[in-house]
Amino acid sequence: MIDSREGSFIAIIEKSTGSIVWRVGPDYPTMSSPELRPRFDTHVPRPLDQTSGQHDAHIIPKGLPGEGNLLVFDNNAPSGYPPMRLPMFYGSRILEINPITKEIVWQYTGIESGLASWTFSSSFISSARRLPNGNTLIDEGMNGRIFRLHLMVR
Questions:
Q1: Where are the beta strands (DSSP E) in the chain?
Q2: Where would you tag: which of 5, 10, 37, 99 has the fewest CB atoms within 10 A of its CB?
């Protein structure tokens, strides 16, 4: 699996052939029209709108809650050419994506913590990992903050 922070895409490459066998981005629906500017939607599941400047895309390992899903720290920061459209007041987000349906099945943003979206924001050096007890460990690198989200209803 690779993810390109500057290209705003995530892909799985078949090792033996070098072929791309799965991909999201950079041709997200939000790029086709200014009216489709992404917004902070708390409803899940929903189709993946986009990732922008993301880091640390990986498949949640077998045996952990959400196994087989993709977990990614979406910096939601300017990237790509042409640049990705961003929400008016953006912040970062942790996305858990079902790779079959390409739907967001769980997320964390500043809004989920009861604050404004921009209160959780890191435009670089960040990651998220699922822990064996179902919690998610988050590294908000730009702000030098590491915290754990307790198991949430999925």
A1: 2-4, 9-13, 20-24, 46-47, 55-59, 70-74, 93-98, 103-108, 126-130, 136-140, 145-149
A2: 37
d(CA 128, CA 80): 22
* Closest of 89, 88, 95, 91 to residue 25, by C-alpha: 95
Rg (alpha carbons) of the chain, rounded to whole number: 15
Q: Tell which residue, 61, 57, 66, 77, has the closest CA to residue 11.
A: 57
- Expressed as residue numbers, the domain containing 100 is 2-149
Taking only the tens place, the pLDDT of each residue in 9-51 is 899 999 999 999 999 887 766 655 656 555 556 677 887 877 8
Q: 0.70 exceeded by the pTM? A: yes
Whole-Å CA distances, 19 to 12, 16, 102, 136: 9, 8, 19, 31
Residue 144, domain member (yes or no): yes
Task: Tell me if residue 4 falls in helix, strand or coil.
Answer: strand
Determine, yes or no, domain membership for 154: no
- How many independent structural domains does the chain possess? 1
Asked whether 108 and 138 are in contact (CB, 8 A), the reply is yes
How many angstroms separate the CA atoms of 80 and 51, rounded? 10
Distance between CA 30 and CA 84 in Å, rounded?
8
